[in-house]
Amino acid sequence: MRKQTVRKAVYPAAGLGTRFLPATKAMPKEMLPLVDKPLIQYAVEEAVDSGIEHIIIITGRGKSAIEDHFDVSFELESLLEEKHAGERLTVVRDISEMADVAYVRQKKALGLGHAVLRAKDLVGREPFAVVLADDVIASSVPCLKQLITVYEQQQASVIALMEVPKDRISAYGVVDAEAVNGSPGVFRIKRLVEKPKADAAPSNLAIIGRYVLAPEIFETIERTGPGANGEIQLTDALNNLLEQKPVYGLKFEGTRYDAGDKLGFLKATVEFALMREDLGNEFRSYLQSLHLA
Ligand code: UTP
């Protein structure tokens, strides 16, 4: 079989972001900034740093700020040029030059699986990544790159996994899986369970928002009916895919923040600010001055 590389990444961004209201009433969740950069930009940078060439963003109503963000802004660029603000100009230009971005609309938020299916024509018959921008990951090797490496070894779909304590597991999709001998962190998945009760969870390994998928997933989603919340779930489609083809999981190296949730967003903001060369020291001193009990 000819080995295929992963060139395209799909960003489902058509959800309503109800956990972050009222901020997300008129603004896409994906545009919430961590320090000074929107979540979606962190996620696109991760893909570009992983060798991805084509970005496909699934948008919905009220999401035009995402398209404007990755577009050229003539007014802003000429203003910064006039002001000789070279560094800021580079920051702005780099965003529009970062990658080739295409957009597809999902007219109704019918679920994550349905959103991914909207990319079928643009992806074609090749493996592709799926990235949920509100899962922000800090790692030395980009999480997507870690998954692509496993995809290239196994030539089969791979999803990112994270250990979650028992009292939090019911908020996630959880896998029943067995470790692959000789490949540290890699698991062969037997079954996926969406949001199980703690006692019924098949493991402590939860699915997070990074996937590398074989193109057969599209036909599988087409055959998948509505599941939890009446939505077409990617997890259900993956369970169907498992019956035809192997699916692997990777316990990736790095820290994931759920920035689509208020507390997760606050934690990510603090940690990303502390990591910044230009702000970290001053921000650390400020936090220390709070003398929290
Ligand atoms: P979430 O479960 O986080 O849903 O979706 P949400 O609507 O964005 O946010 P809450 O839960 O109401 O606060 C996971 C990802 O799938 C996308 C979302 O944009 C998010 O990136 N999604 C979800 C779609 O693109 N379309 C859908 O129909 C559902």
What's the arrangement of secondary structure elements?
Elements: E1 8-12, E2 33-34, E3 37-38, H1 39-48, E4 54-59, H2 64-69, H3 74-82, H4 86-97, E5 100-105, H5 112-117, H6 120-123, E6 128-131, E7 135-138, H7 143-154, E8 157-163, E9 173-179, E10 186-194, E11 205-213, H8 217-222, H9 234-242, E12 247-251, E13 255-258, H10 262-275, H11 280-289
Parallel strand pairs: 1-4, 1-6, 4-5, 8-12
Antiparallel strand pairs: 2-3, 6-11, 7-13, 8-11, 9-10, 10-12
CATH class of the largest domain: Alpha Beta
Show unreliable segments.
none
- Under CATH, the topology of the largest domain is which? Spore Coat Polysaccharide Biosynthesis Protein SpsA, Chain A
Query: How many domains comprise the coordinates?
Result: 2
Would you report the number of β strands?
13
**What form results from the Cα inertia axes?**
globular
CATH superfamily caption of the largest domain:
Spore Coat Polysaccharide Biosynthesis Protein SpsA, Chain A
Helix- and strand-based class?
alpha/beta
Average pLDDT metric: 94
Share of β-strand residues = 15-25%
From the coordinates shown, what is the CATH architecture of the largest domain? Alpha-Beta Complex
First-last Cα distance: 60 Å
Q: What are the bound molecules?
A: uridine 5'-triphosphate
Largest sheet: 9 strands, mixed
Q: Helical residue percent? A: 25-40%
* String of helices and strands: EEEHEHHHEHHEEHEEEEHHEEHH
